[in-house]
Write a structure and sequence with these properties.
By secondary structure, the protein is mostly helical. It has one domain. Helices cover 43% and strands 0% of the residues. The chain has four helices and no strands. Helix 1 runs parallel beside helix 3. The chain starts with a helix and ends in a 10-residue tail after the last helix.
Amino acid sequence: MSTSTVLLLAKSGKNLNTFYVRRNAVILRCDWPRNPEWDSGFYQWLRQSSRSYESVEKEVSQILGHPWTMLSDKQFKNLSIDVQNLY
């Protein structure tokens, strides 16, 4: 998954209660072509914010309205998710 994909997922899912992303599964890249529905400011934000993990974490935190960081491999492996009570 690319950093731009993480940003787009956060942007389209602003009401996410949980958003788990394993840092080592994310590559630094804006691999999305410009969508005609996006204004130039949005695409510029996407390209700029995709350049570092820290920038992505800062932007996702702002979008979700609470501190957010990508998980290390160890943190991700130790996750216990109760899929019966997700809703």
